[in-house]
Write a structure and sequence with these properties.
single chain, alpha+beta, GIY-YIG endonuclease, 22 helices, globular, SOS response
Length: about 675
């Protein structure tokens, strides 16, 4: 790997103009392309102390061996040139929003001499129009089956088509009038092309014209007493209505728009896009990509807050996605021109209509993209008309964008669970953890603790357990923290020490106790510990993880030393850079960003965080529900519980006399009278 200082440009040689820059490796290959409003300011960020860089950015500058740049006149030109170079060089460190290969689509091979409609999954190809994607494969096949009643175009594969052409008789679909049978010459090429154009036009959203035509045909057939013909057209009309009704109206004003939402963590970003045409959701797409370059941040993504990198992510996505989409449509038009002679002057307007279908009038996003004016100009140029990039604040559009955001959140969660849930991936992750930490055995049991509080109040902790890389929820524990004092960093350190002490003190005591019994509370320290079953921690984990960096690890190690714990490996996982801290080491262990080990550790840490947050919210809700007994002098939580338990409710307690209250264990006449007066103070 190269040292960035060896190829850093001399001070003052980088211009301050807008431009695009390329990092190349030792073999001259472009590894990263970026754009900047001020080249000098942007490039200087890459040549600071590499320990302060995001891991992926650090890997990029160490992989590169040179940097070069091109000055342009404006930021619009910089955006366009950046897209061109990314497409040309395919740099390994750039975010690439390639088509998702998991969604099924309806494809029409418009570039063929005799086009066909078919179900398809996979990368986009020239000469093929795609509609969707659909959520289920059956939805594609059902759509094709319904539409071929009205537009009897070819749906068979090339081999089937050629076989029936040689036999001189159509297939079953030709006999039941769901195919015009161009294979035997029942319709010629131009007539079949008209059927295909109608099919494509209907799928593109031009449904009203077809509906009106069929309604007119049905009425005329009925008036002419052609009842069989009228019934057939009626069935065709019902089939088309079924297709259009499958796409519910989500925006009543007939909006043409795309809604784009991101959900990110420190390493990756999930993006979802909903295509809304005429107020209906026509399609949905999704990607999960690694954050890179200027989108990569050294700051953790705080739950409930938007990622600071979102403006850059949205900017890059909009330019790349719509430029790719328009380029594909133009390639399809060029392919059609090859095979269709009757186009002439009309072809140009048709190509522009296709671009208008791809780029809508409005794009709704979570936050304004960086350089929003330049992005709007590029999209308007691609569409051939104005495009508004907006952030909806309220109403139906805001609610729909929230739905898109939830889809992005779920996509990122499922992406992580898929990797953690795979047996091969889990085995690889455990092996990588063992090698990275120098452990003698694979960590088949891993425990992780996390702290949750609000400015040092209502402090709680969680302890989650994973065995063989999977959560073992029966062994989850949660704690109310008693000893931690202060706030912020010092509070977390003290809380980590307390949880570690309580967990491993429990382990030491359980080693000599009957593992079936469970007293839950220690005699010498009233430990608030809740578990989902009655089993003890009769054996320790191979790996114990604390959420935090060097200070938290040092606090936990001190507890290990006090208790004589030597058979457990201890680490801390810091959120800032996903660093793994080992006790006594000045430098963290950096796991590769795409390693299965890091994914597993992240998943365990996130599960501990979720469990802690859930318990913290429960405790906070309980504390907010104040009782009339809370302010009674000399009455603590234990005696309050005894009173309510004895009388059954506060209402029955208020009806009791001083003598009846004094009969409760631990209550003398003075305290009973104090309780009575407090409950009846409004009556005096």
């Amino acid at each position: 790997m190269a040292d960035p200082s060896t190829y850093r440009p001399a001070p003052g040689t980088i211009p301050t103009d807008p431009g695009v820059y390329k990092f190349r490796d030792a073999d001259g290959r472009v590894v990263y392309v970026g754009k900047a409003k001020n080249l000098r300011a942007r490039l200087s960020n890459y040549f600071q102390d590499i320990t302060q860089l995001h891991p992926r950015t650090r890997q990029m500058v160490l992989t590169a061996a040179s940097v070069e740049w091109t000055v342009v006149a404006s930021e619009v030109e910089a955006l366009q040139l950046e897209y061109t170079w990314i497409k040309r060089f395919d740099p390994r460190f750039n975010v690439m929003y390639r088509d998702d290969k998991t969604y099924p689509v309806l494809a029409v091979s418009t570039g063929e001499r005799i086009p066909r409609a078919f179900f398809y999954r996979g990368p986009r190809r020239k000469g093929v129009r795609y509609f969707g994607p659909y959520s289920h494969a059956w939805a594609v096949r059902e759509t094709i089956d319904s539409l071929t009643r009205v537009f009897p175009m070819r749906t068979c594969a090339t081999g089937v088509y050629n076989r029936h052409a040689s036999l001189g008789r159509p297939c079953l679909l030709g006999y039941i009038d769901k195919c015009a049978a161009p294979c035997i010459g029942r319709v010629d090429q131009s007539e079949h092309r008209k059927i295909v154009d109608g099919f494509v036009s209907f799928m593109a959203g031009n449904t009203d014209k077809v509906m009106r035509r069929l309604t007119t045909e049905m009425t005329e057939a009925s008036e002419n007493l052609e009842f069989e013909r009228a019934a057939s057209v009626r069935d065709d009309l019902e089939a088309l209505k079924k297709i259009t009704e499958q796409q519910a109206v989500v925006l009543g004003d007939g909006t043409d728009a795309d809604l784009v939402a991101f959900h990110t963590d420190e390493l990756e970003a999930a993006v979802q896009i909903f295509h809304v045409r005429d107020g209906r959701i026509r399609g949905q797409r999704g990607w999960v990509v690694e954050k890179a370059g200027e989108q990569a941040s050294t700051e953790p993504v705080v739950e409930g807050q938007l990622d600071p990198a979102l403006p850059e992510l949205i900017q890059q996505f909009l330019v790349q996605f719509y430029s790719d989409a328009v380029e594909r449509e133009r390639a399809d038009v060029r392919a059609e021109e090859k095979h269709i002679r009757r186009r002439g002057v009309d072809q140009q307007s048709h190509a522009q209509d296709r671009a208008t279908d791809v780029v809508p009038r409005a794009v709704y996003v979570q936050v304004q993209p960086a350089a929003i004016d330049e992005v709007s100009n590029i999209l308007s140029e691609l569409r051939g008309g104005p495009v508004d990039v907006k952030v909806p604040q309220r109403g139906d559009k805001r609610l729909l964008l929230d739905t898109v955001t939830r889809n992005a959140q779920d996509a990122l969660k499922q992406h992580k669970l898929k990797r953690v849930g795979d047996l091969t991936a889990r085995s690889a992750a455990l092996q990588e953890i063992q090698e990275a930490l120098g452990m003698e055995d694979s960590p088949l049991r891993i425990e992780c603790t996390d702290i949750s509080h609000i400015q040092g109040t209502d402090v709680v902790a969680s302890l989650v357990v994973f065995e063989d890389g999977l959560p073992k929820k029966a062994d989850y524990r949660r704690y109310r923290i008693k000893e931690a004092a202060g706030d912020g960093h010092s509070n977390d350190v003290g809380s980590i020490a307390e949880v570690t002490r309580r967990r491993f003190k429990r382990y030491q005591e359980d080693k000599t106790a009957n593992p079936i019994e469970d007293d839950t509370v220690f005699a010498d320290e009233k430990v608030e510990e809740h578990s989902t079953d009655n089993k003890r921690f009769a054996y320790p984990p191979q790996l114990f993880i604390v959420d935090g960096g060097a200070p938290q690890v040092a606090a936990a190690q001190q507890v290990f030393d006090e208790l004589g714990i030597v058979d457990v490996t201890l680490i801390g996982l810091a959120k800032r850079l996903e660093e793994v801290w080992v006790p006594g080491e000045n430098e963290p262990v950096i796991l590769p960003r795409n390693s299965e080990a890091l994914y597993l550790l992240q998943h365990i840490r996130d599960e501990a965080h979720r469990f802690a947050i859930t318990y913290h919210r429960q405790q906070r809700s309980k504390n907010m529900r104040r009782s009339e007994l809370d302010d009674v002098p000399g009455l603590g939580p234990a005696r309050r519980r005894d009173l309510v338990k004895h009388f059954g409710s506060v209402k029955k307690l208020k009806a009791a006399s001083v003598e009846e209250i004094s009969q409760v264990k631990g209550f003398g006449p003075k305290l009973a009278e104090s309780v009575y007066k407090h409950l009846h103070r409004s009556e005096s």
